[in-house]
Design goal:
mainly alpha
Length: about 150
């Protein structure tokens, strides 16, 4: 069995691992993007609610409503803090997964390069063998014509 054929299953397995790592990395990137979008929505909502609170405080509204707004804003700030923390964790996880993907990609490319190198050497050897066989046939014909 040719060396390149022996390595093809290994290279194929490495390719599958690389593709799976790329898929997992893409999912992690999506989680980061989704978390960032959620944080942006919370910040936008807080800005809107803060304007309502400021408007209500200028109108000298009821104290209980102002306290309710303050309590809700505090919860929004807490949610924003948690969302920021989630983004940080998602980014860390994404970075680890990206590193794993890059390592698998590098391994896959190296194996593919080795397989290609073996295939080229095998083609060269086959070509040389064919050339030798043709030369031998030509010599045999030459000798047959002489006798």
């Amino acid at each position: 069995m040719k060396r390149s054929n022996k390595l093809k299953p290994v290279a194929s397995h490495a390719k599958n691992q690389e593709q799976e790592a790329a898929r997992i990395f893409a999912e992690a990137q999506k989680r980061v993007t989704d978390s960032e979008n959620q944080l942006q929505q919370l910040e936008n909502f807080r800005a809107e609610y803060l304007m309502k609170y400021q408007s209500l405080s200028q109108q000298k509204g009821s104290m209980s409503k102002l306290l309710d707004y303050q309590a809700f804003l505090a919860k929004l700030n807490q949610g924003i803090g948690q969302a920021s923390h989630t983004i940080k964790l998602c980014c860390q996880q994404r970075d680890v997964l990206k590193q794993q993907w890059v390592q698998r990609r590098t391994r896959c490319q190296a194996l593919e390069a080795v397989v290609e190198k073996y295939q080229q050497a095998e083609r060269k050897k086959e070509s040389y063998q064919e050339q030798l066989e043709q030369e031998e046939l030509a010599q045999q014909r030459f000798h047959l014509k002489r006798y």
